Amino acid sequence: MAVLGVNGIVRLRREAPDPLVLPQVAMRPDIDVFLVRNQDYWNGDEVRLFSPDGLPLSTDALPNGVGCYFGSVWELGSNRNHVSSESDNYYQSDSAYFYNRGAPINSATYYIYRDQLDRISFYTTRAAALAGSTANRIDLRSLAFDFLVVSAAGTEEYDNAIAECVAAAGDYRFSDVRDEVTLASICDYAPLYEQPVAGTTEYDNADLQPRRWINGFPWLIQGQLQQWSIELNAENIDTTAVGQTFGDNIKSIVSGGGSFDFIVERTTNEGSYDSTALMQLLLLTEKGSKAEAEFYMINARPESCGQLAPGDLYYKCDILITNSAVNTRADEIIVGTAKFVTTGSIELKMGT
What are residue 256's DSSP bridge partners? Predict the structure, then answer.
């Protein structure tokens, strides 16, 4: 049986990519960006930044990673920021601290923007990240932090697992290639910290934030759709593209398929993906290529006249985008079509 949707909506939730470990040399503090070749993180993704030495956000953040003399490549700490020229006194006063006494900021949550040169910057809101304005970027400082971990914003359990992965990885991961690396193999076995509960003591079941999702992104409406269709019978689905991209074994778990017709556009809406999300899913062949989808035929309908039942009516399943095409006729708007297959069970949900 095939179901066609015109007025209904589609909600997607992507599978979160693996955490990345970025070395010091990947940062460009003069333009507030990091060079990241990994394509799994998209514009508008909410991510958590973590560094045991402190994030390069302010001169108070890194007590052991700041400059101590005029002309240093690093920014001066709070104990030496009065030295702005060679003629200034190195010692501030008899009562001033000789060593920098900062308060490291070990973790923070921001939204990502990726430019055309694969440089990522960070913003405080999703709309600002999608716009990518240089004026609203989080200011990065020239501070020696060694390395920084970028991961999908998650729950306390997931964030604690990331912290455990960092401790287990150690500095040896940067001894060879000075490029970003993932924590994939280690994170598979990281503890959940369910018992005992997370504490607040440093390196002791660290109490990390935020706690909204475990290794995943929030549900967002898929925007710019003109219509969608879903086929609930796998017998009529062409799985050739799936086998070529993901391997022949996955053909046995295809349970259905369908297509999206969409308008090609980029938007800065807080609560929705634009059509580029479907185009990007096609390019992923490893973790992050699968998305949870909800195909709504009735959405939050109130009870009416005692006959129409209130609530929702939708199908829920996991999808893989297998093909997409874009139409660029000169006298028409730019539109596209994406085909997908469903994996696992397809569930019919209804009610309030």
Answer: 342
Task: Specify the 3-state DSSP secondary structure of 190.
Answer: coil
How many whole angstroms separate alpha carbon 319 and alpha carbon 12? 9
Read off the pLDDT of residues 279-334 as tens digits, 9 standing for 90 and up.
Answer: 888 877 666 678 888 888 888 878 777 777 888 888 898 888 888 888 888 778 88
CA atoms lying within 13 Å on the CB side of residue 52 = 18
* pLDDT tens by residue, 111-163: 999 998 889 999 999 989 998 888 889 988 888 887 888 888 877 777 777 77
CB atoms within 10 A of CB 192: 14
- The fold of 2-15+217-351 is Pnp Oxidase; Chain A (2.30.110)
Report the DSSP beta bridge partners of residue 263.
Answer: 335
How far is Cα 247 from Cα 300, in angstroms, rounded to an integer? 39
Model confidence pTM above 0.90: no
What are the domain boundaries of the chain?
Answer: 2-15+217-351, 20-62+102-187
